[in-house]
Amino acid sequence: MDRQELGAFLRSRRERLRPQDVGLPSGPRRRTPGLRREEIAVLAHISTEYYVRLEQGRAPRPSGEVLAGIAAALRLTDAESDHLHVLAGTAPARTRLHRRDVRPSILALLDRLPQTAGLVISAAFEVLAWNDLAAALMEDFAVLAPEDRNLARRAFLGAERAEATLYGISDTAEFRHQVVMQLHATLARYPTDPAVTGLVDELRNTSPDFARLWEQHDVQAAPMLTKIFRHPVVGQITVDCDSLSLTDRDQHLVLYSAPPGSPGAEALALLNVLGAQASDYLR
Q1: Is 2 helix (H, G, I), strand (E, B) or coil?
Q2: Which range, 76-80, 142-146, 252-256, 278-282, is most confident?
Q3: Is 160 found in the same domain as 123?
Q4: Does 126 fall in a domain?
Q5: I need a labelling partner for 58 at 20 to 30 A (CA). Which of 85, 92, 153, 154 fits?
């Protein structure tokens, strides 16, 4: 049970709600955002004292029934409710360290996708594997040190460099928000993994943007269905973005493709021909 993160998460969800969201009158005398603690306690059918102690990180582990009542009172989504159970220590435990080894079948699959740029990303946003087209579209990850292959670090190196650092993508702000949301969930699953805790601490201490987004405690990301890259060799490339969950290793297979005959497909085909020359230019 992560008492401090649980308390912060509950407080952030409570402050997000308005009285009218739960059928309560707003009234003229509210001086703080969101609902009062006693209102959540009543809605969750628990004592106000116990709920206050939960938000303050002083309460013992709540039961599943109590968590269900709190989730209903706070109008949590399924993803937020799952995150609540992870923070409370009532979700199935994972291994202490997140996995970085990629299944051989996935590695073989990447090589069999000549018209699709593909890469495998860990739960901590490390690029673990990639094919030649992904290297041509983004960069040759093979020449980078492992710590420099982390997309979370790249996203928060500095606002003035974010677009260039992230391969000219058009949705830098959305990607940054997604990174923070996913790292919240990752930290809850691997609270003692030094690679995860070290990454989060580094970003919170060095990036004001990351720290600000982190305090929002959002955990549900919207899917990114398309993405635009601004490539220095072939120009703008619009691609479909599909992220497939590899649940057995808590990794994601990310695929960038384009409909046949589209400008995006033609640009990817050109990159496929240029191959190593394109990734050399990016360096």
Answers
A1: coil
A2: 252-256
A3: yes
A4: yes
A5: 92
